[in-house]
Amino acid sequence: MPRVAPVLRWARTGADILRLRDGESYLAEFGSGKGKIYVFSAPLAAAYTDFMGHALFVPVLYKMAMRSFRDEQQLAYRLTQGAISLAVPTVAEGSGQNADQTPFRLVRDSATWLPVQRMQGSALRLEVPASLEAPGFYQVQRAGQTVATVAFNISSKESELAAYSAEELREMVGPGQRNIRVLEGGPNGAVVAQLLAEHSGQPLWRYFLGLALVCLLAEALIIRFGRPKVGAPRAVVAA
Description:
Layout: E1 15-19, E2 25-32, E3 35-40, H1 57-68, E4 77-78, E5 83-87, E6 104-108, E7 111-113, E8 117-120, E9 123-127, E10 136-142, E11 145-153, H2 166-173, H3 190-200, H4 205-225
């Protein structure tokens, strides 16, 4: 563990991140408005601590950064949710008397939507328009200036893995649909084989291929063993 020579002590009013062996806080977190303050009980100098060269130094700084990070905007919103809330910058002074009255718009390419909206402090609440159907990135603009970019995704029901049973499908189709048949699944692709057999007939190319191979084998056997035997030539004696 790192060595520390503390020079500060404080009451337990913050959240301790690192403590000394005697139970006193070495690194604590305190809230300050919308931000956070981190206090070390000793300066980050070699005369007081060797914490800077310890293996805990980088993970602790990373944890401090992650605890300080706040992003009220989600990575993506659903097209089916009713409203979204965004943190938008306030209108700067001198931007005009009606600058804060300019409505926000959702813009994508050449399409523009004017949703129902309401400001709650620095948070903007937008109702998702019913005509917003395409997933993708949309810009939130005010007076032609982009103040935020939001992503909309399709409903989570599109990724639902539940399936209808064969009986439920038959009830949905009804008895009057003669051109629609419901086939129940089977092992080893039995349904696909049945469907192909009904629409394409029984494939016979395998049988013809086997017959051709048998014929080739028979021809080879006939050529090899079916030649007639030729006798030895007889000697002719002249009288």
